[in-house]
Amino acid sequence: MNTLLQALILFLVSMLQLCYSKPPNIVFIVADDLGWNDVGWRNEQVLTPNLDKLAREGVILNSSYVQPVCTPSRNAFLTGYFPFHTGLQHFVIFPPQPYGLPLKFTLLPERLRKLGYDTHMVGKWHLGFCKWEYTPTYRGFDTFLGYYNGEEHYFSHDYTYQNKKGFDLRNNTKPLREATGDYSANIYATRAIEILENHNKSKPLFLYLPFQSVHAPLEVPERYKDLYPAVKTQARRTYLAMVSALDEAVGNITDTLKKYGYMDDTLIVFTTDNGGPVNWGANNWPLRGAKVTLWEGGTKASAFVHGPMLKKRGYTNTGMIHAVDWYATLLSIAGGKVDPDVDGIDQWDTISSDAPSKRKRFVYNIDEIDDSFAIR
Ligand SMILES: *[C@@H]1O[C@H](CO)[C@@H](O)[C@H](O)[C@H]1NC(C)=O
Ligand SMILES: *[C@@H]1O[C@H](CO)[C@@H](O)[C@H](O)[C@H]1NC(C)=O
Ligand SMILES: *[C@@H]1O[C@H](CO)[C@@H](O)[C@H](O)[C@H]1NC(C)=O
Ligand SMILES: *[C@@H]1O[C@H](CO)[C@@H](O)[C@H](O)[C@H]1NC(C)=O
User: Quick one: which ligand is closest to 198's CA?
Assistant: First the structure.
């Protein structure tokens, strides 16, 4: 009788915990220009022990699609809309272009903030900065440390565009000149760790972490190049070294997640924003095409998810997922309601239980300027 009563009480307590537990922390990591064949879990030449461990413990996503370039993919992650629905379907935003992700869209961080999340962004924005209203701290992020454009030098944080040079690294809205000379993977890992150390755990955390790595220019501290003495092609060697620096940054962040007890209720999503640029050292073998193209090499992402809330783990998931689905999926696990007209689908059952994907089709892109269109 006693044990029966105990069991009943335990059951009721765990049900209550289930109903009232706070939603999970979400760490959404985006690598820039990481190719299909540029990760250690697929290519043993690539030294990414930290990413490999997370991928293998979690769920490797084998049919996860993105847009072929930066701005449209980031648009998809944060709005849940295909870029042809937001006006961002043509290539990327360049420094002098006075436009951005239209203000009528409410971004994922803003939705999560309304659900009680603390929201932080560390890294690359690339969704417009022609007016303050377009920048991260005006669009749902409590804090921002990163840069507004698509690329820049990794140490000086200058971007040279059409012979004009500009410094692009900010702490919230202020230029962060003190970081001149520091390597960006290191700056962003340090900032992410600082956020994790200071976060009040009574609130759920959304950390959006789009790294600069491993976009051109090919720049990296020497010590990472020493990891690849046998690679003779210099561009490939530097690129791989940059991938390993990214891996080390993720390793340091993972150590901090463990140290402060985040691992019990944190979902980590890792994805590239588009396929690898083969002219800048990347490799998408055996997929055809590369960054900028609509072929598999440009649009099929190296990606995985990790976290104890995934019911089935340690396998390769083949369900069709698209970049727009993260918005709906993350909003739904945070306890939010997904607007019915959004393009993204809640794929939680697919990624957490290997249930059949609810997605049967997607639009790769509709770009009337480049005359490039595709539908799956
Ligand atoms: C994963 O994707 C690759 C590339 O498209 C394909 O060759 C492979 O068969 C897929 N793996 C599974 C388990 O479906
Ligand atoms: C960024 O700004 C905040 C608030 O002003 C400050 O506390 C923090 O130390 C700054 N971070 C860096 C890296 O300068
Ligand atoms: C990772 O942490 C180690 C030890 O603190 C540090 O030396 C290294 O620079 C860090 N790497 C990155 C990419 O932040
Ligand atoms: C964390 O937030 C809760 C609720 O707002 C508050 O009661 C608590 O004092 C905070 N803890 C710290 C260490 O600031």
Answer: 4
Tell me whether residue 14 is in a domain.
no
Model confidence, pTM: 0.95
- Ligand 2 centre to CA of 371 (Å) is 45
The total of structural domains in the chain comes to: 1
Residue 175 domain flag = no
Is residue 152 one of the residues assigned to a domain? no
**Domain hosting residue 303, numbered range:** 28-147+183-375
234-270: pLDDT as tens digits: 999 999 999 999 999 999 999 999 999 999 999 999 9
* 205 CA distance to ligand 4 middle (Å): 14
* pLDDT tens, residue by residue, 265-307: 999 999 999 999 999 999 999 999 999 999 999 999 999 999 9
CA of 171 to the centre of ligand 2 (A): 6
Question: Measuring CA to CA, which residue among 313, 264, 338, 351 is closest to residue 25?
Answer: 264
Judge whether 171 lies within some domain.
Answer: no
| Catalytic residue check, 306 | no
Residue 15 has pLDDT above 70, yes or no: no
The residue whose CA is least distant from atom 2 of ligand 2 is 171
